[in-house]
Amino acid sequence: MKAMVLVGHGDFDKLVWREDWPKPVPAAGEVLIKVGACGLNNTDINTRTAWYATEVTAGVSQASGISGFDVQDTSEGTWGGLPLTFPRIQGADTVGCIEAVGDGVDPTRIGERVIVDPWLLGTGDWMDPVNAPYYGSECDGGFAEYTTIRASNAHRIDSQLTDAELATFPCALTTAETLVLRAEPKPGETVVVTGASGGVGSTAIQLCRLRGVRVIGIASAAKHSLLLKAGCDAVIDRSEPDLEAAIRKTAGGPVDIVLDVVGGAMFMPVINALRQGGRYASCGAISGPTVNFDLRRLIYRDLKLSGATITPPGTMARLVRLIERGLLKPQLAASFPLKELHAAQRAFLAKDHVGNIVVTP
Question: Domain named Enoyl reductase (ER): which ranges (predicted)?
Answer without folding.
Answer: 10-359
